[in-house]
Amino acid sequence: MPDVPAAVSRALRAAPPDQLVEAADRVVRSRLAAARTDVFLADYRITGLWPVLDPDLPDAGFLACQGVAQRCFSSQQPVLDARDDGHCRVWVPLTAWGERLGVLLVELTGPADAQTVASIGEVADELATALRAADRETDRYRRARRRERLSMAAEMQWDLLPGRSVRHHAFLLAGQLEPAYGVGGDHFDWSVDGDRLTVTVLNGTGTGMSAALLTTLTVNAMRNARRSGGGLVEQAELASDTIHYQHRGRRHVATLLLAVDTVTGRVRAVDAGSPHLLRVRGATVTPIELDRQLPLGMFAETRYDVQEFDLEPGDRLFVVSDGVYDAQPGGQEAYGERAMARSMRSTRLQPATEAVGTVMRELFAYHAEADLRDDAVVVCLDWVGVSGQGER
């Protein structure tokens, strides 16, 4: 078989950033004699997969393949769909560094053997990495992912995100923001550097542009300290001083900062009036109680202390903002009192990438599908450990 992945890689490097899908399409059609290819990208709420090559695909045609595409996206495994005309549709996940972008469809004119499926999978890996990089140079793929117009605040927040998931040999990490098209101040950030994973979750205050601007200031201050080699304390203190300098105590941001040693599972934490941190171990959901310190920016020259705890292989951590934990639609008890723990236990057999969506969907169901009254963030960390043998 011709080296299709290598040919696609060369074509992607030569193509303009807004023409990556067409470049891959030409090579795959030529080398595999494929009848058709397309790329389906997940929208901001991960509620559907939408075509790039054929954005005007009729709803009936899209719905006919939606179940197969969704199965591929959720399982992160290739799915084969044999057609009555003898064609075989091969669906493979488009994933870059653990971030699920969507799925690649290749329709072959005959059966698909294992070697061909593996080759298409390598093509998808090349294309996913290129699409991830191209987002800095073109708006085409972002337009395909949005089903309605984002508010200005949401536009800023999505541009500030590191991604929606990341995979490492020791962990799988995922996060979700809601309402996706109008989020204001809540946010999450992460970075993997050597043996350290840094995660921050912000429980923003206010709404709209003012909240987004405050979050942008906070995240960039923490990134500046982190990228200069500063630890959690330096990140928290620089962000706090920067916010206070700008707002003189009138605005502040509740934030949780975590640094996970990816070799030992030791977690160092700074709780600055933070979002809620919970651990799922087996069938038990337990809040991790940290000493809450002052939110960032409340007072000048606030100093912060680090607390520590350990993860065991198979542990799952959830971090949720107040918009999740304290939600009380229709005068019900807060979602975080009992309903949230039930939804978290129900995710035990799901990876973190699926678990964040489950908890968020249960939150919407708790609201009887009404719009959320507050921003909501769910971040989930599955700790595998260095042995890779952990089980929930």
Automatic annotation (TrEMBL):
Keywords attached to this entry: Hydrolase
Gene3D superfamilies: PPM-type phosphatase domain
Protein name: Serine phosphatase RsbU (Regulator of sigma subunit)
Residue span(s) of domain PPM-type phosphatase: 168-383
UniProt keyword Zinc present: no
Keyword Ribonucleoprotein recorded: no
Endpoints of the signal sequence: none
Annotated GO MF terms: phosphatase activity
Pfam families: SpoIIE
Stored PANTHER family: STAGE II SPORULATION PROTEIN E (PTHR43156:SF2), STAGE II SPORULATION PROTEIN E-RELATED (PTHR43156)
Domain of life: Bacteria
